[in-house]
Sequence to fold (117 residues):
Amino acid sequence: QVQLVESGGGLVQPGGSLRLSCAASGRFFRINAMGWYRQDPGKQRELVASITRGSVTDYADSVKGRFTISRDYAKNTVALEMNSLNAEDTAVYYCGATADWSDRQYWGQGTQVTVSS
Fold:
């Protein structure tokens, strides 16, 4: 079992920045891929950025050049640095991870990011 706890959401003005953090804990041998996803009400959850155990990153086209995902393998944490935020980035952001030899996706509880003036 993996528990994921996010932090760092909030209200920010257009053009501003936020940093999201997520920490994994629980009973596992190793965390594999970690990522950030977001979801608007009535819409499907979409990938924002991911990072594999080998540090290969992937970004949604809409955030390339603005968001950066990073990971601390020793602490089992992942962070998302978000810059040049705009209203379209408003959503609930979820941390996701897989662990050990399972394809099961674990999720955090989500953190709200609101970009508004």
Notes: The CA atoms of residues 30 and 115 lie 35 Å apart. The longest strand covers residues 18-26. The chain is about 0% helix and 55% strand. The chain has a mean pLDDT of 96.
